[in-house]
Amino acid sequence: MWMKNAWYVAAFSKEVHTNLLARTFLGTRVVLYRQEDGQVAALEDSCAHRRLPLSFGHVENDRLVCGYHGMAFGADGKCTGIPGQERIPPAARVRAFPIQERHDLIWIWLGDPALAGQSSPPDAGRMKHPDWVPSAGYCHLEADYRLLNDNLLDLSHVAFVHGRTIGNTAVAQSPIKVSQQGNVVSVHRDVVGAHAPPFYAHLGGFRQPIHRWHTVNYHAPSTCIIEVGCEATQPGDGLGRIEGVVMHLITPETEDSSHYFWAFIRRFRQDEPALTEYIRQAIDATHTEDKVVVELQHASLTAPQRENPVNLAIVVDSGPLRGRRLLEERIQQEQSAPAPEPVPAHLAG
User: Residue 246 carries which DSSP code?
Assistant: First the structure.
């Protein structure tokens, strides 16, 4: 159910310091910390000795020291010291994971490390662009990550789940256009001639009917980048036009839980910290509503049903179904690829 050869968000940059941060990704326990040179290290959170979580230990001179018997491990996973003995067994090492830190996000690669350099994380450049201002947050879900993918690829639900913030009935009544370019599935919707829902009315000051649009761009396995905007249909109404992008960065934790990192990034009213906080609170409330729905759905489905939760397909399922097919294809490609050549023992380090 997982693509392992892919970049997933592990944390926001501000979360990782010289202290230890323990998280689980794709069923694998990982501990992250920042070294003195600013680089982030990510190791399997399990000591090579007696499997105590290394996150119970501490960092000393860039080495992670186990809190049980004091074995120390470098950022490459190799043991560098064992109290009471000089010889370090070759097997005294833990798995180290490739990391990329870009635009205030820390990405981790859980698959074959030899393949990590062949792809890049999805573009989140607007998180740090001087013309754009982010409002960001995190939500933990007790649900299969694919259900959240489905949720984001079918935004008709905002009319019924998010009526207090970003939704109104006009969204569900407006047609969608589904397309695919390579490994990206897109779902576009124009909502014309309806009043702005509360969130967008506040952002743009709109009082008259507007033209609103959103385009969901799904990047397998679990990133959705949604381009959003509103434009006045009457001269002089509000700001006239506003544009933003919403980053939905989902990392599976286990088969039954997910990390949900998000950011709403705007290119209007940039010099208003109060607006940045308003957006953060409003989007956090919106995602709390999604959390309730998706967790209820997850709890109601058996494991086989989660593979195909659509009991009766309707028009708005075309985006989620296309996204599911793309994800399944990518997973099958990964599973059918030749296994990497084993590293000779004399080169294993």
Answer: E
SS (H, E, C) 79-116: EEEECCECCCCCCCECCECCEEEECCEEEEECCCHHHH
User: Which has the closest alpha carbon to 242: 283, 203, 195, 300?
Assistant: 203
Closest CA to 304 of 91, 144, 78: 144
CATH number for domain 126-333, candidates 3.90.380.10, 1.10.1740.10, 3.90.1150.10, 1.10.575.10: 3.90.380.10
How do residues 285-332 score in pLDDT, each as one tens digit? 999 999 999 999 999 999 999 999 999 999 999 999 999 999 999 999
Q: Which residues make up the CATH 2.102.10.10 domain(s) of the chain? A: 7-118
303/297 Cα distance (integer angstroms): 12
- Amino acid identity at 332: Q
> Would the pTM count as exceeding 0.85?
yes
